Amino acid sequence: MRSTLWPVPVFPLLIDADSYTPCDWDLLADAQARAYWLDLFDSQIESLTHVARLAGVLENTCEQIVRSVRACVAQLRDNPRALGDRLDILALDRMRDGIFRDAGVDDACRAIKSRESRVALDALPERLAALKAIVPADLPLALVQGIFAGNMFDMGAPLTAARFHNHEQAPAFASLLHDVKPRPWLIDNLDILSLENKRKALLFVDNAGADAALGALPLALALDRAGCDVVFAANEAPALNDITARELRELLNHAHGAGVERAGALRVVSTGSGDPLLDLSAVSRNLCDQCAGVDLIVFFGMGRALESNWASAFTCETWRLAVIKDPIIAARRGGELYDCVCSVTPAGSAPSPVHQPAPCARPIAGRTSDGA
Questions:
Q1: pLDDT in tens, the chain (372 residues)
Q2: Which helix (H) or strand (E) holds 113?
């Protein structure tokens, strides 16, 4: 069952909508991967209910959610087809999130999202000033590094979630930026990533906090300055710590009120979804309407860029920008934890199933051998 809020059409920029499958990893056909993901969902629920308590969810409600999720996981161990004839990460997400919503918890991560967005907005002027001082030739690298740093705020990956809920606030953005792996990245198409000559860009944003404010927003502003019409696409309903369309509009209004030029002019459209992954077979009519004239799609984050939509081709140039924060996803893409993905594919093409690092075509600015 799709987690959408109204009947909607298929995303019109897909090359082959008839054969589109959001997730290219069939867990019914991969017993080892299925066992891994079921174990993860079983253990992860404690972390998510911890965050829900910070948002004011009552203890007995959290305990019931834990019991229900673990009961579903146990059922899937016994009968992998309990959710239907296809089992993938998206189906597991919808199972868990449906249990939260049935318990009356629509936004378990509300408190932590709000906190991280406030911190990120405070850091935004300094980040934009630093980017303004960078020579144009080095700007794409700096922007993509900022996207990778911001993408570390992720409650869907246990290794990164622990960094956030065990502290009063997230690590400082400068620290996250310092920890971004140096080039060449696992998938490194930075040398063909260009901000120029784009008419209209559709940016599928991921997480609240630094991911949206210090990663996606600076890229959007840079595209806007280059003459590109920029449209953000964000969830309609909450999912983990993903930013919603309403929250993104509020963030842009705050940025504009704080003097960030053009932030208030950027547009936001709802995808119509409430999933942490992205199912383009069910999107909002407004999103479809905004596809007119789009010649660039950008997918931010592991869920939208790697766990879903990796094998899909689109009618325009597509960027997939993410940090890999799960070991089995890393292994599937031929890499390691915290490897970075900067994939650029032309119209009509999709990335190959597994990539290996490519040599850099030019010197790398701004990094030393120790990752500084």
A1: 344 444 558 999 999 999 999 999 999 999 999 999 999 999 999 999 999 998 999 999 999 999 999 999 999 999 999 999 999 999 999 999 999 999 999 999 999 999 999 999 999 999 999 999 999 999 999 999 999 999 987 766 666 666 655 555 567 899 999 999 999 999 999 999 999 999 999 999 999 999 999 999 999 999 999 999 999 999 999 999 999 999 999 999 999 999 999 999 899 999 999 999 999 999 999 999 999 999 999 999 999 999 999 999 999 999 999 999 999 999 999 999 999 999 999 999 999 765 443 333 333 333 323 332
A2: helix 110-132
Our measurement of the distance from residue 176's CA atom to the centroid of its chain's CA atoms, rounded to an integer in Å, reads 16
CATH code for the domain in which residue 319 is found: 3.40.50.10880
Residues 76, 154, single domain; the answer is no
Using a 10 angstrom Cβ sphere, with 0-12 exposed, 13-18 middle and 19 or more buried, the burial of residue 145 is buried
Report strand pairing: 267-270 vs 229-234. Answer: parallel
Please say which residue of 46, 80, 102 terminates a domain.
102
CATH no. for residue 72? Answer: 1.20.1700
Question: What strands lie across the sheet with 296-300, from one edge to the other?
Answer: 187-188, 340-345, 317-323, 296-300, 200-204, 229-234, 267-270
| Residue 283: strand, helix, or coil | coil
**Which two structure tokens, joined as six digits, stand for 88?**
């993938």
Question: Residue 278: inside a domain, yes or no?
Answer: yes
Do residue 330 and residue 205 come from a single domain? yes
Place of tokens 């246990």: 158
Question: Which residues form the domain of 182?
Answer: 110-345
- Among residues 56, 78, 102, the one where a domain terminates is 102
β-strands 317-323, 340-345: how paired? Answer: antiparallel
The reply to whether 214 and 304 lie within a common domain is yes
Q: Cβ atoms within 10 A of the Cβ of 313, count?
A: 18
Is 183 within the bounds of a domain? Answer: yes
Contact 325, 338 (CB under 8 A): yes
Structural domain total, the chain: 2
